[in-house]
Design brief:
The complex is a heterodimer of chains A (306) and B (513).
Chain A (H helix, E strand, L loop, with lengths): L1 H28 L13 H10 L6 H13 L14 H36 L4 H15 L2 H15 L13 H30 L3 H8 L4 H13 L1 H15 L3 H6 L5 H10 L3 H29 L6
Helix pairs in contact in A: 1-13, 4-5, 4-7, 4-10, 4-12, 4-13, 5-7, 6-7, 7-9, 7-10, 10-13, 12-13
Chain B lengths: L4 E10 L2 E11 L4 E5 L8 H4 L8 E8 L2 E2 L5 H11 E4 L13 H10 L8 H10 L5 H6 L7 H14 L4 E5 L7 H18 L2 E6 L2 H5 L4 E6 L2 E7 H6 L4 H9 L16 E13 L7 E13 L3 E5 L6 H8 L7 E6 L2 E2 L8 H4 L2 E4 L13 H11 L6 H10 L16 H13 L5 E5 L7 H18 L2 E6 L2 H7 L2 E6 L2 E7 H6 L4 H9 L2
Parallel strand pairs in B: 3-8, 3-9, 6-7, 7-8, 13-18, 13-19, 16-17, 17-18
Antiparallel strand pairs in B: 1-2, 1-4, 4-5, 9-10, 11-12, 11-14, 14-15, 19-20
Classes of the chains: A mainly alpha (306), B alpha/beta (513).
Chain lengths: 306, 513
């Protein structure tokens, strides 16, 4: 197990380098510059700015400098938020995104697996059918539809919760964004759990366990659930990285100061170091969560441990 | 004495179709009754449906230890199974939960009838009883670490852990290789007699149950055809079907079949080696085949025999360029065969494979005629419908099967389709990888007859992988015995059977007797 983790971490280094390389050059080849505004700058100021940030050097030198900085844990300065480094911005945005994402992930996994289990108890019964219909709807509805609907119903009409904003992380402000973020993932988790269980329940080892007089909840919980969760885990790994690093749409709708917002603004402003920083962080998290998913895989199914 | 299991006019229907009719049987303590029949005879449904382990609907009356089985609600039936019955299934590889270790399985089995948690010594003793080596270590292992034979032994230990009154064993040895079959059967027999347990044994192979069953019931298409004490059924079966079943199992004592004359060298393999990477930090390699050389002549049938894991299939695949091959050279009619990645259709035309699982080796979406014609298309020749039908007829397939799909075929028909597909390129040699071992005794016997006819009429050479010497003897001039990836003995079939030089060969011979 330890060997597997180490091997995977080593293998992730070239992946991360490729991501950094591609995103660096893609950003630079996109038209526009961080200093293009409504009003063109006069050429002298422009040159001074380029020189100050090293943008007048050959691109390959810039890349080399960026990689060197990255190796020292330095994401560079933000070109648009002039008084902040990218590291500062990430440290402001990341905790918000992490909190909302982690809550949504937990809720989606717990709720999805519970709903999948409930549906499996009476396969093709009315509960199963109606739950699965709801879950299909949830996965089908994008967050930019569920988000505003939730805000409309619970904030504007019922007035139970604030419409948007962060409120310094007060719990009431978290409910709606977390919920909007949870629902589609929960739908997918529920459907995958249900499908996984349905497949496992026809297998030989289940019939053998039934022969030993094991039935109902015990049969599902002890003999079926763990192998049935394999597809859920392979879905949840990448999904978790997406949830935790800032759901761009949700953060925009609910005006949250998370990472996603910086990402969008950075891209629009050609704030090269900021976009690069967020992309690198995102890639690293994807690698990390896929690794966690692999470790969980090994726990769920000893056969993959080798 | 009251019967442990008592069936009175039991019927089973699946989706309204009767699959078992008016089955009567009674098993006393310490008694073993065998239900024998080919697939589709209803022998498995006759216990699974009444015991609530299949979707079938059971009618009539059945009692386990005096308590009604048919008509009981799911909860009380589940409790009844847990208390009084133990089950051993055909599929040892998949009947254990993959994520629970052996200790967890055994503990559950010990506690299923309400007993207290067993201690480590009890678990170890249970494994020792069923003949598992290094039991303390095995307890911590997960099922995939155990071989098929070991898993079946664990299943048996679990089925007996709660001291049930009845053991139901459904084809307990069919998925095991020949040397293990006898051992596992003897183990079941000994444990049942020692503990005074009643046993219901289900099998397609009359010969294999003969030594341990007290009484035998022969079933066909849901009906009881014949019933009586074992020795009576074995010595003088009263029904034609019983006689047919009895004759179907090949034996080493059968008369020596006439074998075709052999010609020039066809295929020669020199110093073949294959290894597989194993999981682990240092990436060790498992040497699956080492220094294996063999030769097949025109019209000659050569068997590679050995237990599971002996490397016999790996060797055949390496030779046929169907699997990895690390080292060694293969020549076909004197010319070297290119490595696997460079093989073209015409390189393969001379030797065609037939695999163990007939249904899995046919594409489920294709029609039979297209499946058979495919190799000819790859050769650029194509095959006319007329030609496909003539090959089908040669393989004993009716012309009206040409437009069916594989799932509409029986196992025997599917294997005939696979053979027809192999013949369409007019090969000089067939490679048969356990081609009859997934089939019922009767069906396997008919496939062997077909192969023998093809061998005679087409002067086909064969490379046959099998774990059963008696099957090999039906066709093969020579036998090659493998163990742990090496060829340990080879020679003329009759000579080798009469005077084996190695223990492995002796064990294989004993298993086929």
């Amino acid at each position: 197990m330890f060997g597997l983790i180490l091997r995977r971490l080593m293998a992730s280094i070239p992946t991360l380098l490729a991501v950094v390389f591609l995103s660096f050059f893609l950003m630079r080849f996109a038209p526009g510059s961080p200093f293009d505004g409504e009003r063109p700058l006069d050429p002298e100021t422009r040159l001074a700015l380029d020189a100050a940030y090293g943008l007048n050097q050959p691109i390959i030198v810039q890349f080399g400098r960026y990689i060197t900085g990255l190796a020292h844990g330095d994401f560079g300065p933000s070109l648009v938020y002039r008084d902040f480094t990218v590291t500062d911005l990430i440290w402001t945005g990341l905790p918000v995104s992490l909190l909302i994402g982690a809550l949504a992930l937990l809720l989606a996994m717990a709720g999805g697996i519970a709903i999948g289990l409930a549906a499996t108890l009476r396969p093709n019964g009315p509960l199963d059918r109606s739950l699965m219909l709801c879950m299909t709807l949830l996965t089908a509805l994008p967050t930019f539809v569920t988000g505003p609907i939730l805000a409309l119903v619970f904030a504007l009409w019922l007035g139970w919760l604030p419409v948007a904003g962060w409120g310094d992380g007060a719990p009431v402000y978290l409910v709606l964004p977390v919920l909007a973020l949870t629902l589609p993932t929960m739908g997918a988790v529920a459907k995958l759990t249900r499908a996984g269980l349905a497949q496992i329940m026809t297998q030989d080892h289940i019939r053998a366990a039934q022969g030993r007089g094991i039935s109902g909840w015990r049969l599902i919980a002890r003999h079926a659930l763990r192998p049935a969760l394999l597809p859920v885990i392979s879905y949840a790994g990448p999904a978790a990285a997406g949830l935790l690093t800032g759901a761009v749409v949700i953060e925009t709708i609910f005006a949250l100061p998370g990472l996603g917002r910086y990402f969008v603004q950075g891209a629009l402003n050609r704030d090269y170091p900021l976009v690069m920083g967020v992309v690198t962080l995102y890639a690293a998290l994807i690698v990390l969560f896929n690794l966690i998913a692999d470790v969980l895989y090994g726990w769920l199914d000893p056969r993959v441990r080798g | 004495m009251t019967a442990v299991l008592d069936y009175r006019n039991v019927t089973v229907a699946i989706e309204g179709r009767k699959v078992v009719q008016n089955l009567n049987l009674a098993i006393a303590p310490s008694e073993c009754v065998a239900l024998v029949g080919e697939s589709g005879s209803g022998k498995s449904q006759s216990w699974m449906a009444p015991f609530g382990l299949s979707p079938g609907v059971a009618g009539g009356e059945a009692y386990l230890c005096g308590e009604p089985v048919i008509g009981a609600d799911a909860a009380s039936l589940s409790a009844l199974r847990a208390r009084h019955a133990g089950f051993v299934f055909q599929q040892p590889l998949t009947s254990l939960s993959p994520h629970l270790n052996i200790a967890a399985h055994l503990t559950e089995a010990f506690c299923q009838a309400g007993a207290a948690l067993p201690d480590q010594d009890t678990l170890i003793a249970a494994l020792v009883d069923v003949g598992i080596d290094r039991p303390a270590e095995r307890l911590r292992q997960f099922p995939h670490r155990l071989s098929g034979g070991q898993r079946q032994r664990v299943m048996i230990a679990m089925a007996l852990a709660h001291r049930p009154a009845l053991l139901i064993a459904d084809e307990p040895t069919t998925a095991l290789d020949a040397t293990l079959r006898r051992e596992v059967m003897d183990l079941l027999n000994r444990l049942c007699r020692d503990r005074g347990m009643a046993m219901l044994l289900i099998s397609h192979d009359l010969a294999s149950v003969a030594s341990i069953a007290d009484r035998i019931i022969i079933m066909r298409q849901g009906d009881m055809i014949e019933t009586g004490p074992s020795d009576q059924i074995l010595s003088q079966p009263t029904s034609d079907y019983g006689r047919e079943l009895l004759a179907a199992t090949p034996r080493l004592t059968d008369p020596i079949p006439v074998r075709p004359v052999i010609g020039a060298a066809l295929l020669a393999a020199q110093d073949i080696a294959v290894s597989f990477p194993m999981p682990g930090w240092r990436r060790p390699h498992l040497q699956a085949v080492a220094d294996a050389s063999l030769m097949v002549h025109e019209g000659e049938a050569v068997a590679i025999v050995g237990g599971s894991g002996s490397g016999k299939s790996t060797l055949a695949r390496a030779i046929a360029r169907l699997g990895p091959c690390d080292a060694g050279e293969v020549t076909w009619r004197g010319l070297p065969l290119p490595p696997r990645a460079k093989m073209q259709a015409h390189d393969r035309a001379g030797f065609q494979p037939v695999f163990q699982d007939p249904v899995a080796s046919l594409d489920p979406r294709w029609r039979v005629a297209d499946i058979i014609a495919e190799p000819a298309h790859h050769l650029g020749r194509g095959a006319s419908r007329q030609f496909v039908l003539s090959i089908m007829a040669e393989c004993g397939l009716d012309a009206n099967l040409a437009d069916r799909r594989p799932h509409e075929l029986s196992g025997g028909q599917a294997q005939r389709v696979a053979i027809a597909r192999a013949l369409i390129t007019d090969p000089a040699m067939l490679i048969l990888d356990e081609a009859t071992s997934a089939l019922d005794v009767l069906v396997a016997g008919r496939i062997l007859d077909l192969l023998r006819r093809l061998q005679r009429e087409r002067r086909l050479a064969m490379l046959m992988i099998t774990h059963d010497l008696a099957v090999a003897r039906q066709l093969c001039h020579r036998v090659i015995v493998m163990d742990q990836g090496r060829i340990i003995e080879q020679g003329d079939t009759e000579m080798l059977i009469r005077a084996p030089h190695t223990d492995i060969s002796r064990a294989l011979i004993a298993a086929s007797q």
